[in-house]
Amino acid sequence: MEHKKHTVLAIGAHIGDAELTAGALLATCAVHGGKAVTLALTAGEKGAPVGADIAEYRRSKIAEAEAFARELGGEAYVLDYADGLLPDNDEVRFAVCDIIRRVKPDIIVTHHEKSMHKDHEACHKIVVDAWFYAAIAGFEREEPRHFARHLYFAENWEDAPGFQPYVYLDVSDGYSLWEKAIDHHWFAVHSTSFPYKEYYSHLKRIRGIQGRKGYCECFMIPPEQYKVVHTLEDI
Asked: What is the pTM of this model?
């Protein structure tokens, strides 16, 4: 079967957020000839191991994001905002808007609106507004307007309150590439506080079973898009 080539832009508050929650979607897009792009609004450097130098860990995190993207033949962007101090303002919104216009994604993925992390909640609001800004020609920027048709909110154990799976995307074709690529993220494999890779590996399989596929990733969508349209011939 011929697969449509998509460009996916996955946006996280910290490096690793998008790669864990939507990484297999990015990988599946890549193996079918599409483009996979990640954007982290902060590097997530405050999660450095005990005794590690924060600045050095930030540089390592950025290198990890770039290595993950290279495995997928894609790109990684990291903004300069400090972990834990992500501002909720239009400066960030227009920075994200500009990247959306540059990348021209078909699909944007970001955090669900409720989270244990303030950066995650801020990221959600920033991306929703940037998605709108990017689509409006009246916001004059260097790049022309671009409307990403699909906006998805990823399933993240740290963003659990109120999350209800709505869209199940089959990511079976990219799962093995994701398993390899995620190993570039040190914390995903070596964290002593939470087994990130193990958790998300099993979650993708559980969602796959529920979706009658090998592996799935689940997403919410904006509430105004909660509708299923059929003709009688579809039923």
From this structure: 0.95
